[in-house]
Specification:
single chain; about 180 residues; alpha+beta; six-stranded mixed β-sheet; three-stranded mixed β-sheet; 13 strands; about 25% helix; globular
């Protein structure tokens, strides 16, 4: 790593080579560390699918991706469990795109919940991504973070599994978290 925290060219080359070689795994670069995660389990994917179906009721036309690589201004390279952008914003996007058009990222906790709770939380806030939805399976809650400032979100709405979570504009829709964990 260079002193400004951005990865060096050789380190990025190693990251991209590993990412290409491990196509079936999620390879990310967060805080100067390469993280490799196996494909998610069925419960994880069911939650993502249920969220995607519920987001169809959003007031704004959205496109969603479960495998969109984001290269953040911090130098981090992340692959959120779901990325929501205005419809059409994914067209012609490269494998690793900047987060400029991203409205919402979603993470469902898996093998390393602290990566989602802390590292990705900070990286998404630093990047100015307006909304971060965390489905925390271990703690049985869904948290919507909003209003990013520096390396934190100043807005937080939390509900226990089974409750409804209201997503503000531009989404203007409600997520029934009972459907996520049925």
């Amino acid at each position: 790593m260079e002193t400004d925290g951005k990865p060096t060219a050789p380190f990025l080359a190693e990251f991209f080579e590993l990412s290409e070689r491990l196509k079936n795994d999620r390879v990310e670069l967060i805080d100067g560390n390469i993280n490799v995660a196996p494909p998610p389990d069925g419960d994880h994917e069911t939650i993502i699918d249920q969220l995607r179906q519920q987001m169809l009721g959003s007031a704004v036309a959205l496109s969603a991706s479960g495998n969109k690589g984001l290269v953040l201004p911090t130098g981090d390279h992340v692959v959120p469990d779901a990325t929501y952008v205005p419809r059409g914003a994914l067209r012609h996007a490269r494998s690793w795109m900047p987060p400029d058009d991203v409205l919402l990222v979603v993470e469902v906790t898996s093998s390393d919940p602290n990566r989602d709770r802390k590292k990705k939380y900070r990286a998404y806030a630093q990047s100015g991504i307006p909304f971060y939805l965390l489905v925390d399976r271990r703690n049985g809650k869904v948290i919507l973070y909003s209003d990013p400032e520096r390396d934190a979100y100043t807005g937080r709405t939390e509900v226990a599994f089974g409750k409804r979570l209201v997503l503000p504009a531009p989404f203007s829709t409600t997520i029934d978290t009972a459907d996520l964990v049925d």
